[in-house]
Amino acid sequence: MVESFNSTAVKRGLAPGSLIHVGEVLDSVTRMSVIDYDKSNVEEVQIESLDEILQYKERDSVTWVIIEGLTNVEIVEKIGAIFAIHVLVLEDILNTHQRPKFEEYDDYLYVVLKSLVLQEGTFSVSYEQVSLLVLKNFVFLFKEKTDDLLDPILMRIRSSKGRMRSLGPDYLMYAILDSIVDQNFVLIDALDEAITSLEEELFDRPTPQTMHGIQRLKRELISIRRYVSPIRELMAELLRSESALIQASTAIYLRDVSDHVVRVIELLESYRDILSGLIEIYISGVSNKMNEVMKVLTLFASIFIPLTFLTGIYGMNFDYMPELKYRWSYPILWGAFISIPTVLLVYFKKKDWL
Amino acid sequence: MVESFNSTAVKRGLAPGSLIHVGEVLDSVTRMSVIDYDKSNVEEVQIESLDEILQYKERDSVTWVIIEGLTNVEIVEKIGAIFAIHVLVLEDILNTHQRPKFEEYDDYLYVVLKSLVLQEGTFSVSYEQVSLLVLKNFVFLFKEKTDDLLDPILMRIRSSKGRMRSLGPDYLMYAILDSIVDQNFVLIDALDEAITSLEEELFDRPTPQTMHGIQRLKRELISIRRYVSPIRELMAELLRSESALIQASTAIYLRDVSDHVVRVIELLESYRDILSGLIEIYISGVSNKMNEVMKVLTLFASIFIPLTFLTGIYGMNFDYMPELKYRWSYPILWGAFISIPTVLLVYFKKKDWL
Amino acid sequence: MVESFNSTAVKRGLAPGSLIHVGEVLDSVTRMSVIDYDKSNVEEVQIESLDEILQYKERDSVTWVIIEGLTNVEIVEKIGAIFAIHVLVLEDILNTHQRPKFEEYDDYLYVVLKSLVLQEGTFSVSYEQVSLLVLKNFVFLFKEKTDDLLDPILMRIRSSKGRMRSLGPDYLMYAILDSIVDQNFVLIDALDEAITSLEEELFDRPTPQTMHGIQRLKRELISIRRYVSPIRELMAELLRSESALIQASTAIYLRDVSDHVVRVIELLESYRDILSGLIEIYISGVSNKMNEVMKVLTLFASIFIPLTFLTGIYGMNFDYMPELKYRWSYPILWGAFISIPTVLLVYFKKKDWL
Amino acid sequence: MVESFNSTAVKRGLAPGSLIHVGEVLDSVTRMSVIDYDKSNVEEVQIESLDEILQYKERDSVTWVIIEGLTNVEIVEKIGAIFAIHVLVLEDILNTHQRPKFEEYDDYLYVVLKSLVLQEGTFSVSYEQVSLLVLKNFVFLFKEKTDDLLDPILMRIRSSKGRMRSLGPDYLMYAILDSIVDQNFVLIDALDEAITSLEEELFDRPTPQTMHGIQRLKRELISIRRYVSPIRELMAELLRSESALIQASTAIYLRDVSDHVVRVIELLESYRDILSGLIEIYISGVSNKMNEVMKVLTLFASIFIPLTFLTGIYGMNFDYMPELKYRWSYPILWGAFISIPTVLLVYFKKKDWL
Amino acid sequence: MVESFNSTAVKRGLAPGSLIHVGEVLDSVTRMSVIDYDKSNVEEVQIESLDEILQYKERDSVTWVIIEGLTNVEIVEKIGAIFAIHVLVLEDILNTHQRPKFEEYDDYLYVVLKSLVLQEGTFSVSYEQVSLLVLKNFVFLFKEKTDDLLDPILMRIRSSKGRMRSLGPDYLMYAILDSIVDQNFVLIDALDEAITSLEEELFDRPTPQTMHGIQRLKRELISIRRYVSPIRELMAELLRSESALIQASTAIYLRDVSDHVVRVIELLESYRDILSGLIEIYISGVSNKMNEVMKVLTLFASIFIPLTFLTGIYGMNFDYMPELKYRWSYPILWGAFISIPTVLLVYFKKKDWL
User: Fold this and answer.
1) Do E312 and A312 touch (CB under 8 A)?
2) Which ipTM was obtained for this model?
3) Which helix (H) or strand (E) holds B65?
């Protein structure tokens, strides 16, 4: 499996709610940015200390705080203190082995899920945990490392066009979820390609490596499914939620994300079935191969063993063997050497053994 | 898999609701037709611009607008503007990778599903996405290309007989759904034939090609199921819907479609089981074949190897080998050459090895 | 599969509700009989025209109309007209590819299911569609051909004993359903026998024919299950129904039928598992067989190939081969010819290879 | 399968509710006993006629009537008449092919299930149907034969200790159900042992008999599961029941039985998985065996065939073969006879083929 | 399977509620400790008699009684008497074959589950049953033996920091459940390692031992799943419970445990799929191996058998064989000896047989 639980094991003795970072460290530096926007203005700043965000608390605009890198536990602790976030939520943010889930609290919503990014080269996936805290005018986004995941959304905020700027934090949440879910289609595209190439390999020249390739893909698929399928449930709960933080007009957008998730899951299931089919093809291919080899062996052995027996007879040294004296024995035997294989070959052909 | 997601990938960076066509282009020209009918009159026109349909807005008759070809994004945009359709619905119409679904809005219903058409030649299926917008007096139908899918319905509207003309847009919607669902029976007919012919091949002369044929069918089946099974859910939601746009009398017709969908899905499941059975037959057939080949080899080797050993003995050149001088040695050996195989054959026969 | 969908395909272009017979014609003549009964009287008549049943409309007695053979579409049409039956129901009666289902209408109930009858000879099943229309004082039963399916029920009506005569059309419906469902136990009995005989064959002398037998049974089972499992749901809906046509006292009888259906389905599932087990036995049996054959080959080859090599050595014609001159060479070699196989056999035995 | 349905088949023509015994006759004599008890007194009698139980009708004590042997149909009929039991219940009591179920009537409860008893010797199970009728002060228990199933309960009634005597018929029902369900643990114990011994056999010396053993166990398991799993549902319905015949304080005991049933079912599922694993081990074991045999063959053939060829060369009778005259030819050839196998063996070893 | 049911079998004859210890005895001595704590004080004592805990009944502090070792039945009996615990609960505490479950009573809650601890050495798990009785101010914990399971919780109570000390018995219950559930992550870590090492073995040098290793792991997994999956349900019931003993603020903590359980179960499912994949790899690996061996055999046999036949021809002793006299026969034959294998090798190579 991709993840290691050693750190979970290490944490076992601690009181629940003790804030430490659990999971592999993907990025050891922590970066914080604030994007504050409303219909008319956008303000983007890199901040060093959380105190700088206090000023946005009074404003009516949407304030989006992005925290990249989770090693600095104090930041999470401080956000918890300022905005009265439950300690278990803070713990979940810092523990990157979360199952995707949605939790509704009185004053905020908490969403955690995995962003799946395709790695270059052979088909392999990297997982990054993304946590969202949605408050009345604030959205906190925690991610494990710096990458370009959020660039398209930032672009849309910067350009004054589109609905983005005139809508609230719930729409921002939707935009982020949509962006993370739609990444999976890229993944599926690559999966399709990987399977197709394996399939061709299987028909052309199956090797044990092909089998390993299939198994590797199968495991990758198991792991992807494990992170994607809970999102269906997450979205269902989000849609059922009656929190004042989600406006009625946003629900229709969330339903759209939900549809996409269902489609992704169904596609993953299809690929699972197809992979099982590939294994069947491989195993039947190996059997066919052996059949062919066996036929060659049988062909050679069945034809030459009787002939060799014949030569053996006339290689014996008995004093009394009348055929040895006979003038035409040798040519007649040659006739047998030619006719016996012919008869056998015709017979085998007819029996469809060869 | 049949579809490519590259375009989905391309779209990822865009704001949701940005209208662009996503999916393979099946037809690059867009054709628009209007069929306006009520009990007494039918009017059919090919139109060039959407402005031409504005006149029907005032009438009480049912106006059916058919848009074939989805590359002209502006048409969809304009319909959205005129009839106040949600931007996500417009987006879904243009994206041909939709999962079949039904969505209910205050003033209109949205249904999207796949029309599955059997291709000529070997068993293979083409998929066309059909979207339906049902309004008070209007039905918009969007499809990817021009074909004869709707001809039977058009025929029924033209002939003044039947219920068609005296009923509303919901009955038209039913007629379209019914027509798309019932196509699947033709598919299943062809599937049945394809499986039967594979099965005969399997019993007569199984080759690796037969195995590939089975696998190809299995994948086609996976893909069909993926597009057909969500329709069950779609119909269930349609039946549960309490929209004023669906009249009570239409519900019974929709239930009929729903029954057909369930039957199609159950048949597909049966064929899945049968295909798995074919793979088992194939694999056991390969084993049987190898068994037969092995038996031939064993027969030849077991009989001739001992005999050859015998000839080897009397081919040795020892000075002192009394048998060589003996007058009857050679005929006696011939007796052995005949009796040993006979004994072995009888023994093998009895042990049921050959 | 058993059925052909060609006719469904043919019908695709028609308006829903166009009454034509769809399905294989099992009986081309249509027979109509009326059994009218109450506590005190029974009247049985063969009728030629539907007009003859109009007289029963006024009576309080239960009138059971049996229509055998579905090719005469007009009869169904006329019943629809007289008793105000929905056109889709009429269509379903005539289409013999129905999934078993129950539909409740204001004035009547519609039940359609398959009667499964075991064919003589090898295990094979024939399917006949039976439709029931239950009205206030009427029960219409449509079946595809003339057979003895209903004889036991007719007998019970004729004899004045039993509850039959004193109860209403709902009890008659129950009696018919019960009779059709209980037929399946006969089927399962035969299935059990067929499986047991296959199993014995498998242990005694497995051939590819045994495998085909298993597969044939498996397909038959798939097909039976397809027609039987929806009856569970049908019965559940019937039990949930609050129609005034079903009296409270009948519910308990229907529950009994429901129990039987569940039992039949569970038995079918068991047999499915057992059939899978048979396939496993077959495949492992084939492997064992090959193992045995291989062992014979190995035995012969391993013993005689080294000996033949030995004879080869002393068959060489070198001028200088001192052993050839030696008086005891030949007897010593015979010693080797006997001791080498003995040693090998003991070794193989010990290693459990043979 | 264990049971035969011939009798069901025979019964098919009869009116529902016709009382005849259906199923294999396990005991042809019918025995009746009455145990009447309350806090202070216990009375046990063997009775000959049902009239003898009428006297208990007036008393407040719990009267438990045990009927062993089901061939005497009149007894059941008479009980039905005296206590107004529905005819379908009476029918179910007499038909020993019942699926375990619970039915609630106004004045009585009906429970039917199977008592599973392990047979001596190899693992095999006998099934006995037990029916319970629970009335206000009466409990009727019908079983197919005389055995020691109820002895522990009788013992507890006789001894005045324990809750038994001071509680009502519902507690007696619980005690009986508990006793029947807990028998299954003995079964599972034996199953565990049987599987363990099969497993050892599989690792030591797998034979086709082992495979048959596995299959036999698998079928036994299928059959056990078929009788045990419906009890889960039965208990759930019993717990949901609001019948006045079940006191609130008994519910907690019934829940305990329910827990046990769930545990039994989960254990059975585990064993199913384990049995599938055994089949996999067997098949892979057969393959390994064949591999080993093949290796021996290959070893012998690959080493001696080339050597025999060499001897063949110098056994030829050409006039001009200079090597034959050469003094050291023979010893040099012996060198080849020794070095070639050595090289091959080393090579095979290195390639890990042998 | 891990557990033996012999003792269950032994108990079968007893009245329900007879208190005896059922299950393997893990520790024959019973130890009792009391930890009484509130915000300001902690008191820890080892007690000898239950009478010593009576004094805590009056206090408001949380009193946690830990009973290690279950052989002393009287202790459980006495607790039952003092705190009015239902006899079935007491029975469940003493029977260590419980399925994890939660039961709610008026004055107390009962939770029973298994603590899974990884054994040193190869992957193997030991199971210990832990029962919890939660009362107003008391928590009783029963476990089978003395180990360090509770040490971290004790540590947290002793240190005055953290929420522990200021919260009630429900929070203590949560802490214990959390601790037991989180142990499973350590298990999964080890499982992952065991699978990875098996996988490497499989790719490097698969032996029947590897197969046994896989099967052993599979059984261990079946057994783990059997004890872990019911905890999901247990937690769900705990969360649904409206008992006054669970405070609203604790619910959120319990939800956290519930999330962890779901994650553990999903991980276990993933590993199950992966293990099945390993078996497939193993079987295909065995086939590949045999293929390779067969190829060697075929190579040797196909090349040398024809050559040996050639030498056989010229080893014959016919008087009239003109080639024998010919000066260049022998060198020409050597040409054949070299060219025939070359041609065959090239041909095999091209056909991809070798």
Assistant:
1) yes
2) 0.80
3) strand B62-68
